[in-house]
Amino acid sequence: MHASVSMEGTVDTQEQGLAVKAPTKKLRRRSIKERREIVEETFVAGASVSRVARRHDVNANQVFYWRKLYREGRLGAKQLLAVEVTKDRSASVTEEASVPSSGSIEIKLAKGSLRVFGSIDVSALRVVLECLAR
Q1: Is the overall model pTM greater than 0.70, yes or no?
Q2: What Cα–Cα distance (Å) separates residue 39 from each residue in 16, 45, 94, 116?
Q3: How far is CA 6 from CA 3, 10, 13, in A?
Q4: What is the largest CA-CA distance in the chain?
Q5: Closest CA to 70 of 101, 17, 32, 115
Q6: Which residues on adjacent β-strands are paired with residue 101?
Q7: What is the pLDDT of residues 63-94, one digit of tens each?
Q8: Nearest Cα to 105, choosing from 81, 80, 122, 130?
Q9: Could you tell me the sign of the dihedral formed by the alpha carbons of 31, 33, 37, 40, in that order?
Q10: Hey, which residues does 72 pair with through a beta bridge?
C-alpha cells in the first residue's frame, strides 16, 4: 500500500542559512569578599541595587540573593540586626542613668527571640547590644 504525499507548499529548511549564535558571555565567579563589597555598596544611602549590579556586570536578582546571605551572616560579614525602639511613656531614661528602670526588651533572632521583662540596667543593655553588634 502506497500513500501519496503532496509536497506543494513545503519549504526545505536545510537549504536555508544557518542561524548564527551570539558568543556566550563567560560567567565570572566572584569571591565572597567581592560579593560582600558589592552588597555593601547597595546599603549606601540613595544607592540602587539595579545600578550597583549593572556597574559590576551582575544580575540584580543575584545581588538581592547576596544581600539575603549577607543579612544571614553567610558572606563573612557581621550580621545586621534590626532594631525597633519604642518609648515607654511611663519612664524616661537618661544617658547617665545607672539605676535600673522597669520595662521590657525583646530581641528577635534568626532562631527565636529573647525577652527580658522587669528591671533593665541601661549599662548592661549597652553591653548586650555591643556584643550582639560584633
Answers
A1: no
A2: 48, 13, 36, 33
A3: 10, 9, 17
A4: 105
A5: 32
A6: 120
A7: 999 999 988 888 885 555 666 676 665 544 45
A8: 122
A9: positive
A10: none
